[in-house]
Design goal:
The chain is of the alpha+beta class. It is built from three helices and seven strands. The protein has a seven-stranded antiparallel sheet, with helices on one face.
């Protein structure tokens, strides 16, 4: 099971970083490349524990739907969402926020399992893990810009 961990320092308060990361509206803005839009569940505002959201997006040229649920919320330091339904076999995405002098360290930990057994493992090695890592880094950098401009 691949695990992607990425840290981003943001010159903004922990509360702000936490809220922009769980904002459906900001998520949509930071995923313009994949044309993500919330189509079911919470479709605007801030996600909270127990909430679900279904995202529609284009990945690898294919329109896909992914339903995720927030399973843990420890404001303003951590929340976790899991895949309920989607193209992957499963995923757990932990979002952590550590207050530090001058800002916040935002940590993404994304653990996922590809479908299709050995073929999925091969896909991870060939392209999927790299794609997911770049997606997470791209969003983190976009969130950094947004938070620092709001602060």
């Amino acid at each position: 099971m691949p695990v992607i961990v990425y840290q981003q320092f943001i010159k903004a308060p922990v509360d702000l970083c936490f809220d922009i990361k769980r904002s459906v509206d900001i998520h949509t803005k930071t995923t313009a490349k994949t044309k993500e839009v919330a189509v079911d569940g919470v479709t605007e505002g801030l996600l909270d524990e127990g909430d679900t959201v279904t995202w529609e997006a284009i990945h690898f040229g294919i329109k896909q739907r992914l339903k995720a649920q927030v399973t843990l919320m420890e404001k303003p330091n951590k929340f976790v969402d899991i895949m309920v339904k989607g193209a992957l076999h499963s995923f757990v995405h932990t979002h952590q926020f550590i207050e530090e002098s001058g800002g916040t360290i935002m940590i993404d930990k994304f653990q996922y399992k590809s479908p299709f057994g050995p073929i999925g493992v091969l896909a991870d090695k060939l392209f999927l893990e790299k794609y997911m890592r770049e997606f997470i880094i791209s969003r983190a950098k976009a969130l950094k810009k947004i938070a620092e401009n709001m602060h």
